[in-house]
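Before drawing any conclusions, I looked closely at one protein, both as residues and as discrete backbone shape codes, quoted below without any editing:
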Amino acid sequence: MADAITSVGSRIVVVDTSVVVKWYLADGEEQVSEALSYLVRHRDGALLLAAPELLLVEFIQVLKRRGLDARRVERSVDRLLAARLQLHSLASIAPAVAALVGSHAISAYDACFAALANRLDAPLVTADRRLARCGACDARLLGENEAHA
């Protein structure tokens, strides 16, 4: 967990679950290469990827919904944790989440990602068109980011 905002000369980008899923379940997904480019640049130190801890729970739920067995879910979670994204506690953004839910037509789940992006003064990268367009934060839609943040 990393509630202290730390960057080692890297630009911070918040990614949501719709992006992370593409790293591990590419079949039938669009914009996989763009999503993977964020992970590669994170591993190379060119970007620092951040997300609320909620990402882990949503990721597990998506894997389960897609029919992965328990062993594959566990391996995928281990790989995600090994990617060393900067994960932030929900308590650190809860007031901002409540404010966004009250002022924008988004779920509390989506508001977690938007609130973190606002807190870090970083763009949110998502494959969720509705989230990208809601105006709750500086959001970039995969497929429309040829320059990749």
Notes: The chain has one domain: 11-141. Residues 1-9 have pLDDT under 50 and may be disordered.
